[in-house]
Queue: 4 jobs
Job 1
Amino acid sequence: MRFPRVLTTALLLLGVAAAPAVADSSPTPSPSGDDSAPTRAGTSFRTATEIEQGTQATASGSAGDYLYWSFPADAGQRPTVKATVKLPEASTRKAAETWQVDVYDGLRRRQACQYGAQTRTAAQDTATVQLSCTLRTVRAWSETWADDPLPGTYYVRLTATGLPASELGLPVGAEVRVDSKDIGGSAAVDGSLGKPLVPGIATTAEESGSGSGSKKTALSSIEPDDGWTSGWWSDRWVWTAIGGVLAALAGIGGYALTRGSGRPSRVPPGV
């Protein structure tokens, strides 16, 4: 009876140790009521409006415009982009409209959606269109020939496709939100980037001694709340340790079950 008690105690201890790793796989909490949420969108990659994950950005535009936002994504995250388009009044529209959301990485490579309604067509009397795109899990490292998602800046592009000339220029509203699920060690790889793919295209105001401001090139000002964490550590090490301990316990148990109770009393010494 001793071995089952030892095994039960070990499993309980391992469960307590693994609890933080399991908790990390829950979706990223989303703050609400953020007054600093962006209220505009860029019109190109270079002017994309930066948004933090968990923040809902809004913008006003015209049908036919390209609306751009950018957000940071780190290794182990699986981002989901959700966009809602508020269409013009039905009386001003004469045909259906098709809207599409695309996501690009820091190298401006279009990333495929694992699932989600990336493109939708709204009937003439529809008031809103909801789009979504869930990316593949961001990897800490990848081969140069692959198009795997890598840590860095990601771009969201929202636009209408195939609009007739009569529909161009009508006012529309847009809401965009990005949330991520932390996948954890199951997506870990043996490698990491030297630096995240964050393009140095932004400019910031720099105060000079004369009081006149000047512009200087700077990296994107957004990054994950805890910084860029791509590296060798992941909760995969926790599960590896758990597997090693369980294997050792299994070996001890097997030995205890097969070694027997020693020399039988009926066998004389020396035989």
Note: Confidence is low (pLDDT under 50) at residues 16-33, 201-205, 207-211.
Job 2
Amino acid sequence: MRAENAVLGAAGLAAFLALGEAVPRLGLVKEAYFPPTSRVAGALGEELADPGFWTALGDTLTGWALGLAIAVGAGVVAGVVVSVVPYLREATASTIEFLRPIPSVALIPLAVLLYGTELRSVLLLVVYAAFWQVLIQVLYGIRDVDPVAEETARSYGLGGWARIRHVLWPTALPYVMTGVRLAAAVALILAVTAELVIGAPGLGARIAVAQTSQAVPEMYALIVVTGLLGLLINVGARTVERRALAWHQSVRGEVAV
């Protein structure tokens, strides 16, 4: 089944690349706006040979990784505290529902005002966007804890930390991993967006420079790189999720299938 899926995926990708080559060659769109796949591939090769590209890639990955790490740590801690402290969840529910829908891009003026084009501007946007993905999943995960298991733990005299470790955390972990996977994708989107709009160093800023200088094949090549990054991050997050949840029925059932 996996081999068949891989073959179908490769065939779909080959068809997409062939279509990207044929459409501008046939004159359906102007090559100046949509260059053929071969020109984009050539521009990608030139980018890979440019040390500046690797510096920009490192800047993007730095903002993504730091922002994701901060968001995951803060989201897990905040979610556990809000869930286990009596009445705190009810007291914070309206605040969470007010702040969560605010688009992170709406904070771009604030980030520029506070930090300019520094890395901290990128981190502000990335952390804000990714934090809610983790927090909400932690809250849902802890809410899903079996009340019977919770009461049994109390009857056996388990303290607060022991209940979190042996009862709450195993139940919430699948939700946490889902939140981390979602946050990883959102963090990359916001990192590139911040670089593109604010001008912070990274792939987004490099895309903006290519666009303003009319280097269209280079622009598409950099966009392809960001797409590949998103694909690799998603695959990596799913791999970590499977390993962390190897004991869980959802993963064992997936492996069995």
Note: The mean pLDDT is 86.
Job 3
Amino acid sequence: MNKPKTVIDIQRMKAEGEKIAVLTAYDYPFARLMDQVGIDVILVGDSVGSVVSGYETTLPVTMDEMVYHTRAVVRGTRNALVVADMPFLSYQVDPVEARRNAGRLVKEGGAQAVKLEGGENVAETIRAIVAMDVPVVAHIGLTPQSIHRMGGYRVQGKQEEQARQLLADARAVEEAGAFALVLEGIPAALAREITAAVSIPTIGIGAGIDCDGQVLVIHDILGLCEKYSPKFVKRYADVSGTISGGISDYIREVKGGQFPGEEHSF
């Protein structure tokens, strides 16, 4: 068994030029499979609201739901670092509530770190959480919890003023103590500039090849979510057809009296 990864290992990977592979997981079976094949980081994303619960956005996801899914993922993990998303309204109200909710994801969920969205506007919150020895991943650019302000899922940082703000956001979250930074939906050139400007690892999603690592949603890369097909997603397998075929075969055999056979009976 490999030694479990820590936040120190993830930071060392940037220093040594080793790319960081990150995927989302929301349950025990997926976490176990990706952990066994060597994923570096598992993100228990609030994207669970869209790809598992069927919501149109991530906004309805609750703390209790995140604790539940984090606990399930941790049970399937031996080697990967598990990071849990802080859902909408779990950290925006005040730093005290943010600390309590971050603590829940570690104490009740078993996560080794938490992730929250925002830059300069959440720097003090990041600082408060880090001060209680809970590692934090920051997230800037296209931040899904800000969908209403952004007017949808739009690429951020195309305009010079936006780009300058994102660079300032990256420096602010690093200074506040975040150990890694997700860059979502920003031009590749800007992601390259941010990656060079900060000492913490950058994890890209729709942010080009020059980030220190990449993250995608597991349901997207396996063809299990038909609601969205972002440009930045690469489909590595299409298991929806396999699943549908298996279910169809089961229905046919039940209807035709072929299942269960003698070998499935006592």
Note: The chain has a mean pLDDT of 96.
Job 4
Amino acid sequence: MTDWDIKKLRILRTLADRGTVTATAEALHMTPSAVSQQLTNLSRQLGVVLLEAQGRGVRLTDAAHLVLRHAEAVFAQLERAGAELAGYRAGETGQVRVGAFSTAVPALVVPAVAALRRTHPGVEVRVREAEAAESYELLSAGAVDLAVSLAAHAPTARDPRFTRIPLLADPLDVALPPDHRLAAAPGLRLADLSAEPWIYGGSGPWSEITQAACEAAGFVPEQAHSAAGWTAILALVEAGMGVALIPRMAVGRATGVTVRPLPHDRPTRHVIAATRRGGDTAPAVSRVLDALREAAGPGGC
């Protein structure tokens, strides 16, 4: 009978996610030599070659991919077993670690935690700010139990590792300097701002969202300034140095600028939650998901 070692299979899955032995070792707080030794032992136990040399690194063999396809079902079943056991053992108590992107923390996570403290004080939520790519790495490695991210930057719905839960369709508004010539213009459209200097990040989700929204409106935005944080972006807009798209979730921070909705273009970003496959059935995680849906309000998905 083949010896399936769960710990070693998790190391193999992390290697598939991270791509190198060094990155795998860092994610799992191991040494590279320990990772290599564990995977060599797993290969011996399963009786197949799992890794092949590729330049200075390694690549997974077809046998390794076959093993991982079956291992994902095992991991999902173990998550369900752990969730049922947690429900039996703890009932309404438990700790849930949440990774969320910066805008979602004050807009969704904090209100959800405040509501849970009133209704289910035994559920403890620990929050970790993390952008989309990092949150899924943390989720896969078991460092968080639930990730709040943008749908456009999440793994596909067919990814066997995760369960995706829609939370919110978040409209995008445009922030203008208070004295801008279009600050009070009726029926404002994105195309009306095609000749304006734009402010957005040099890379990452918000850069892609801004460019995609403008391109859908028929133009490529001229990036005059690059900034990633809302404090910096809104300060530049207030100073008259350009315009910027801003999610409705972040409008509360937009003091000193004019914020206009875009009802004709309706640019939107979709916010989702995700758990490891099967993990959403854990009672405490389910409570947090319910609270996040409630915090999303009528605009929730």
Note: The mean pLDDT is 90.
